[in-house]
Design goal:
The complex is a heterodimer of chains A (63) and B (460).
Chain A (H helix, E strand, L loop, with lengths): L6 H15 L8 H21 L13
Helix pairs in contact in A: 1-2
Chain B lengths: L5 H9 L5 H19 L2 E4 L1 H16 L11 E5 L27 H8 L3 E6 L11 E2 L3 E2 L1 E2 L2 E5 L5 H8 L5 E6 L5 H6 L3 E4 L19 E6 L2 H11 L30 E4 L9 H13 L4 E3 L4 H19 L1 H6 L6 H11 L3 H21 L5 E5 L12 E4 L2 E4 H4 L5 H4 L5 E5 L9 E5 L5 H13 L10
Parallel strand pairs in B: 2-3, 2-8, 11-12, 11-13
Antiparallel strand pairs in B: 1-3, 4-5, 6-7, 8-10, 9-10, 9-16, 13-17, 14-15, 16-17
The chains are: A mainly alpha (63), B alpha+beta (460).
């Protein structure tokens, strides 16, 4: 079952996560932040769907 | 406006036919006349530039050689440290910083070569954008159509060179921020291999993805600058230790030995037809016989979105907590969203990134140059939120980076070349190479320029 990504759910997440992190969000910013978060979560889904991953990744990148 | 190349200015200055002061005064006069309507400069360093020019003229008079770029005026994106001025990085928050106490490594390199810094250039806040629509400093306008974007985030860098104010500039590129503005303003722009050029004294956006590179109106000028910038720097932990490999000596070697392919699929979709035709034209001119598929390109773009957003938000987290309202709304909300993302999604993106890198490496076992459009569309109108292409609607600003992002996320060297024959606005095509193979992509670009398939055409 896919996780809920409706606006209300994401808005609650943004509100609570931001509060926990110490970021005060003006209510007028919330819709845009929610939309950006949605796109990031969809990006994470796209990565999973690609089905490739490396065990030897490092956060310091080198070509 | 003045279209004299950097190489030609340096030759004239070193040969005693042109005083550095005259070259710099002319640039400053052009900036005074032309920079306002483009909104490309955020600082003009008149006194310092004239003092530097005087020093160069004195060196010439004394029989010394000030360097291969003697007297050449240049400007840099305002995220590079310049001694004595505040490094804005396109932000309001950075106005409160103390002035830099020394030049960034790349600024130092060009000044050591005799080039004269005349100013710093507008950009998207903290480099998080593709259109240089900066809420604090205003949008930078495209010299070909003032109602349109100059691209970003190095929009000031592209507008200043395309408008003939300076012959060369420096920018940075994380997802396309040298290549996109170069394409939209009809210039040559180089994003070298990750780690090829030092980032000391540069305000970073996403530390594992940021690149530094030049913009110019000719391949020769681009390479002249690139050869001065590249090489190891012990002060930059991300800088590769391999020695500099000058590209200029090989520039005229032609393309007979190069295996070239056109990137198909993802790289020909959701783009204006003229853009696709331009990429095909360039591929054909380079003798490409094949069309290849870059595996997982769409997922690579997705991974880049997560990696750059999370890394950028991490750099700015303290200010996001204490003064979020001082950010540009165009960047603030994206930084906040990325700051809320679970860390596990970042590490998964990095794991994908490595696997993608290895997959593309396999592709480059059989080819030397990959050809793709630089952007899916020509310069969008300033303020445009959405664009329709082929019956689908896309967020305009994000869509501009569709074709550039999949290569910068794995640090490949890429040059954007301006195609000739574009009907209305400039269009660019990417030549992508294997890691550290800048000489190959640069001589392919030089060949195309000689054959007049690509080249700078001044705005009317």
């Amino acid at each position: 079952m896919p996780p809920p990504r409706d606006h209300a759910t994401l808005e609650r997440f943004v509100e609570e996560a931001a509060r926990t992190l110490g970021i005060a969000i003006d209510p007028t910013w919330r819709p845009t932040i929610v939309e950006h978060l949605r796109r990031l979560l969809e990006a994470a889904d796209a990565i999973d769907a690609a089905g490739i991953s490396s065990a030897d990744h490092a956060t310091r990148f080198e070509p | 406006m003045d279209w004299q190349s950097a190489s030609s200015i340096a030759e004239d200055v070193r040969g005693g036919r042109l005083r550095a002061r005259a070259a710099v005064e002319a640039a400053l006069a052009r900036i005074e006349l032309g920079a306002g309507r483009l909104n490309c400069f955020t600082a003009v360093l008149t006194d310092q530039a004239l003092a530097d020019a005087a020093r160069i003229d004195a060196e010439i008079a004394a029989g010394s050689d000030p360097g291969p770029l003697a007297g050449v005026p240049f400007a840099v994106k305002n995220l590079f440290d310049v001694a004595g001025i505040v490094t804005l990085a396109g932000s309001k928050i950075n106005r409160e910083r103390a002035p830099a106490n020394q030049d960034a490594g790349v600024v130092r390199a060009l000044r050591r070569a005799g080039a004269v810094l005349v100013g710093t250039l507008n950009m998207d806040e903290y480099a998080y954008g593709f259109t240089t629509e900066n809420t604090h400093y205003g949008p930078t306008r495209n010299p070909y159509d003032l109602s349109r974007s100059a691209g970003g985030s190095s929009g000031g860098s592209s507008a200043a060179v395309a408008a003939g104010l300076v012959p060369i500039s420096l920018g940075t590129d994380t997802g396309g921020s040298i290549r996109v503005p170069s394409a939209l303003c009809g210039l040559f722009g180089l994003k070298p291999t990750f780690g090829r050029v030092t980032r000391t004294g540069t305000v970073l956006f996403a530390p594992s993805v940021d690149h530094v590179g030049p913009l110019a109106r000719s391949v020769r000028d681009l390479v002249a600058v690139y050869d001065l910038l590249q090489g190891p720097d012990a002060d930059d932990p991300a800088c590769a230790t391999r020695p500099a490999e000058p590209a200029m000596p090989m520039l005229a070697d032609g393309i007979a030995d190069l295996r070239v392919a056109l990137a198909g699929g993802y790289f020909l979709e959701h783009a204006e037809s003229e853009v696709v035709a331009a990429a095909r034209r360039v591929a054909e001119a380079l003798g490409a016989k094949r069309e290849v598929t870059v595996p997982h390109a769409a997922a690579a773009r997705a991974a880049a979105m997560i990696v750059t957003g999370v890394e950028g938000s991490g750099l700015h987290l303290a200010n996001l907590k204490t003064r979020p309202g001082d950010f540009d709304p165009m960047t603030r909300d994206r930084f906040i969203a990325a700051a809320l993302l679970p860390g596990s999604l970042y590490t998964r993106a990095q794991a994908f990134r490595r696997a993608y890198q290895l997959a593309v490496e396999t592709l480059f076992a059989d080819i030397d140059i990959l050809v793709t459009p630089t952007t899916p569309l020509a310069a969008p109108p300033i303020g445009q939120e959405q664009v329709m292409l082929g019956g689908s609607t896309f967020p305009s600003r994000a869509h501009v980076g569709r074709f550039t992002i999949p290569f910068s996320i794995i640090g490949l060297p890429v040059i954007s070349v301006p195609v000739r024959g574009a009907t209305h606005l400039p269009l660019g095509v990417q030549l992508v190479g294997a890691p550290f193979r800048e000489p190959q992509v640069l001589r392919a670009a030089a060949f195309l320029e000689t054959e007049r398939v690509v080249g700078f055409v001044p705005p009317s």
